[in-house]
Amino acid sequence: MRYRVTLIEGDGIGPEVTGATRKILAAAGAPIDWEPVPAGAAAFEKYGEALPEAVLTSLRTNRVGLKGPLATPKGGGYTSANVRLRQALDLYVGWRPVRSLPGVKSKYQGVDLVVLRENTEGLYAGIEHEVSPGTIVSLKVSSKGAAERIARWAFENARYTGRRKITVCHKKSVLPKGDGAFVDAFFNVGKEYPFIQQDEISLDDLALALVTDPARFDVMLLENLYGDILSDLCAGLVGGLGVVPGANVGANIAVFEAVHGTAPDIEGKGLANPLAVLLSAVLMLEYMGEHKVADKVTCAVHDVLAKGVVRTGDLGGKAGTVVFTDAIIDAL
Ligand code: NAI
Known about the structure:
Layout: E1 3-8, H1 14-28, E2 32-36, H2 41-47, H3 53-62, E3 64-67, H4 81-88, E4 93-99, E5 112-118, E6 122-132, E7 135-141, H5 144-161, E8 165-170, H6 178-190, E9 197-202, H7 203-212, E10 219-222, H8 224-237, E11 247-249, E12 254-257, H9 275-288, H10 291-307, H11 321-331
Parallel strand pairs: 1-2, 1-3, 3-12, 5-10, 8-9, 8-10
Antiparallel strand pairs: 4-5, 4-11, 6-7, 11-12
Helix pairs in contact: 1-9, 1-11, 5-6, 7-8, 9-10, 10-11
The structure holds 1,4-dihydronicotinamide adenine dinucleotide (NAI).
């Protein structure tokens, strides 16, 4: 069986890192036929649209996509294509597995966490009012439906990937209704999954526990803003944003992507580290059930990193994108 996968190369270093990823996956024998579609700054220049309809059509058809970073113009011009993609396809789960990698300098070794972020509600609903001059009210939206569907996704994913425990995070002490409903939905759905341990923790306790004893956690489920902040904190536990994969997932559609940006400072210099996009592609292969080829690529990456001879500048080495890519292909 072969899979047709939508490919958004992205802006800046996007074509370099997605190109390297394609090369490695081809060498590993991944059964993928890529369908490239235009998005981001290049698409805006060419079509006057940063997220052309063709992107959404392709993803709705193929159901799986790999995305490079997309530039968002600082002074406006168009709305972030990343945000619009998430909204248009209702990609309600932010999925970020965070694992220590051999040979990558970090504060902790042996970290193996999954951060799940509710992508659609909370303060990101963007509802703000100036109720009187100088006084702003920003509304945080929490619905039972959104809380239940991400809780169900969390349990199903834990079941499928062999995870044993999910911890839901909240700030019920100040938001008993909104965060309380998020937690209640989690435990209600959790009654259907008694074989997975279930726990709750306050946001502040979680922040402290993560930086002192991250091995305590397995899967963490967080509403939008808490997930945004703590997923980056967790990346910091294993070496930063450049080495963690990610995905945004909806009902039967998943878009896999690195969490770093377009790195305009190194664009076109052949210095970009393709690891985050490559590991996102590995996560994609696991999601598709292609575990054999996913494991093969993972082993090759670990092999190269553990030897420590070939590594990119951001990891303290001197290798460029091509040399690092070829080293992984040799290790395959
Ligand atoms: P950035 O992640 O692009 O760069 C921050 C620093 O990390 C830079 O020094 C860069 O060279 C380095 N870096 C990033 N990725 C790297 C890689 N693969 N290998 C080696 N070094 C790497 O963040 P910045 O500068 O804030 O954003 C630049 C653009 O990217 C903006 O237009 C922003 O909107 C966009 N962006 C897009 C994202 C996405 O599509 N998911 C996520 C974050 C930012």
